[in-house]
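User: what does the whole thing look like in 3D?
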Amino acid sequence: MANTEGRILAAAKEVFIAKGFDGARMQEIADIAKINKALLHYYFRSKDKLFEAVFKETLLQIGPMVLSFVNEPIPLEVKIWKFVDEYIEIIKNNPKLPLFILNEIHVNPERVINFLNIGAFLDTDALQAQLNKETEVLSTSRIDVKHFVVNILSMTIFPFIGKPIMQKTLKIKEDDWEKFLEERKRIIPQTIMNWIKINQKV
Amino acid sequence: MANTEGRILAAAKEVFIAKGFDGARMQEIADIAKINKALLHYYFRSKDKLFEAVFKETLLQIGPMVLSFVNEPIPLEVKIWKFVDEYIEIIKNNPKLPLFILNEIHVNPERVINFLNIGAFLDTDALQAQLNKETEVLSTSRIDVKHFVVNILSMTIFPFIGKPIMQKTLKIKEDDWEKFLEERKRIIPQTIMNWIKINQKV
DNA sequence: GTCTATAAAGGGATAGAC
DNA sequence: GTCTATCCCTTTATAGAC
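Assistant: Here's the predicted 3D structure for the full assembly of 404 residues, as structure tokens:
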């Protein structure tokens, strides 16, 4: 059967993301990987080590992919559209990932803190410079790069994290969720650009 | 000593929020409440029942408080400012609450699904009507209430959920966090209002 | 109501055969 | 590499004294 280590990692990823570290059971991971518990420990010494492998792999997979072009010299508006579009597509394929990562950081910072250097490089100074150039052209007041980044990330990621509540509160049926996400690809850049464009000079 | 049940609930809330249901230990709750494990089971039959009590109480406490004025007939811009301001203040006092609630919904929907009716009433139709009136006056194209609500909630709540990553990526020191939140009280309404104001008619 | 002691089950980890 | 059997610690839950 196809390589065991790969199957274990895939199964572990599935269970850890669905249940979190504390809720995950080695037995369930073994069952899904179609092996027994003992073999888990043969490949990865402990639950901690297995989690570490999964978490590291996940961050390496998702981190750089997204931010690769953020530091590149392309027009601001294009950058925003591209970022939102790509990010939503990626998370659509891994909708539970953001909450999983954020929650593990929360409940056990010590366990994951070592890997947080891996993803998420962002040249804030360069981005702030690009923002300054943009607002200069538009003759509007400056935009703080911190709030710029937080606004975009928030509006892009939060709908996935809060999906059940969003669906309930706003009466979005599961069939309409995909359409809703497509709308957001348009709405988010629009919201950001409009914010920048009429930000009155004081 | 002050009423035991209250101390248990307070201790349980603290531990459940910090560690999640799966990570929480009855022993730790007992220690913090300065009683022994047996007494926990005397007051609340099981860990599940105790969690249920805590979760329900938490939702009841936070849900209606926030949305009480959202359905009221006050000007849109005032409503936005007030909402963001009050919401940020409330979460500042319970910064771990949003992630806790969202994660519990995620890892165990069955356990919490019954209580989700409690909070979060929102008259979306009325709010959509108010938005329509606003864009009519401004002669801009209509705003979808779904994205309106999601945008505001996202930008308000997400910074708390992603605090460690925000701090790291954007180099916000702990001392500056409070200031950062104060800035957001101004930035979020501004972002939303600007979005509405120059949303071009097609 | 509150305690100590202990049962009962769960779950991570290991030994040892093949 | 893979399995079965089992160890042993942790954790929830209960029994029973005071």
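In plain terms: Chain B touches chain A through 54 residues (CB under 8 Å). The domain at 1-45 of chain B is CATH 1.10.10.60 (Arc Repressor Mutant, subunit A).
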